[in-house]
Design a protein that fits this description.
With 272 residues, chain A is of the alpha+beta class. Chain A is built from 6 helices and 11 strands. In chain A, strand 2 and strand 3 form a beta hairpin.
Amino acid sequence: MTSVRLRIDLAYDGEPWAGFARQPDRLTVQGTLEGALTRITGQPVASVCAGRTDRGVHAIAQVVHVDLDRAHPRVARATHDLEVLRFRLDRMVGDAITIWQVREVGDDFSARFSATERGYRYRLVDGEVVDPIRRHDRWHVGEPLGVPAMRAGAKLLLGEHDYAAFCRNRQRRTTVRRLDEVTLTRPQPGTIHVRLAGPAFCHQMVRAIVGCLVEVGLGKESPDWIGEVLLAQDRSLAARVAPAHGLTLERVGYGRRYPAAPPASGRRGGAD
Amino acid sequence: MTSVRLRIDLAYDGEPWAGFARQPDRLTVQGTLEGALTRITGQPVASVCAGRTDRGVHAIAQVVHVDLDRAHPRVARATHDLEVLRFRLDRMVGDAITIWQVREVGDDFSARFSATERGYRYRLVDGEVVDPIRRHDRWHVGEPLGVPAMRAGAKLLLGEHDYAAFCRNRQRRTTVRRLDEVTLTRPQPGTIHVRLAGPAFCHQMVRAIVGCLVEVGLGKESPDWIGEVLLAQDRSLAARVAPAHGLTLERVGYGRRYPAAPPASGRRGGAD
């Protein structure tokens, strides 16, 4: 097969989908994207993604790759002009998914395995009220959170650890990960952003960490408790995971060889 | 009647409602707010608002007043602690409406007639793509807009004029208004914000103005055309009104005697 590998950079509103990953009889981001590619090329298409997000989680910078057989005339036509393909795809997948860019990559590039860094942002509102038009991507905790205590707890998570206490569905795979960044900021009164970055994350690790940080921010637990949960490697000690809709996959890094999609218009600024 | 007048500052996501104004058998912001107040007080409640927004239009700073009869025991109880009343109301009206503040005002205050300034913001995206989670409050024009030409056209609208060409449903009432501000900014690449302010606006005036500015920005009309439309006072000459979901009522001013609600937590910054 004269195969061509395409890298697709996309964003989505997590709300309308049963998560990223394809499922029979459910509307998913992956299923919708693959379905559109199949309608365009006439070929079955299977995609590989950088970070499988759960139901309700948003992405501003998800990355996917697909292999297509260029020997097929409809594939050859569709991949002739990749900006035209991007435009058609973007139309077909509807308003809740945006296709930033489609480009050809070598077959040594994997959206999943070539990724060296994943970055997430979790939005918290600790004011009494939340702007209703912005309620879809932030968790309204509704009680004041102590950011210094949360920062002290977050610091204990940095570096390489066994994050078993913060992972779901481990299925006997390793839960050792490296966390390079957990930063808390207040972009405006009543709002806290938690940014997390590392080479890879376990299932629900970000939401489990944020859930614990909120307990500390509320004063129900001390910052040191975060370290105790981590060391105990026992998920039952951790807090409930933070709701999915506050979380956004914000960055996937592949090193210098594969740069990110150029800053697309209408893309969110960090301050928001 | 020992009446008490309450001023209510609120925000709403315009999407789920058939507009602000009460309508039989339709879900509206006003109907929902009045219904909640009636359930709390046991009394029929009629409200007066600063700016009746159309279906789909959002508000970050709407103002309403209501009169309640304090002689009624349930009203006396409900108005005893206005922060408790705010909290109850906020709960009852659901996620798509936020009650920022409830306070007692003199009966010389009218949410509608005491207002000296109304401020709106219209969000345009002229990049090829739009962040899907932010698509609910901006119009995705999708073609590059020339801001300098739009600014030149906007300038011709400032001051006191007969805005008949930009008004719907005039019903023989005057369409003379004063426009104090039409400012265009690019908070980020691909995004344009149009801010408009004046003592009062006709029905759909903001959306009609933005519709015409977009024609100019696309190069379909010259900036001077805006002045011609204004002078002709003929609505059929103007462009189609811009879609409702790009518009947000952002500010209602009452002068120094009646300050705005304090910056509420989780409230949008202008840069977004």
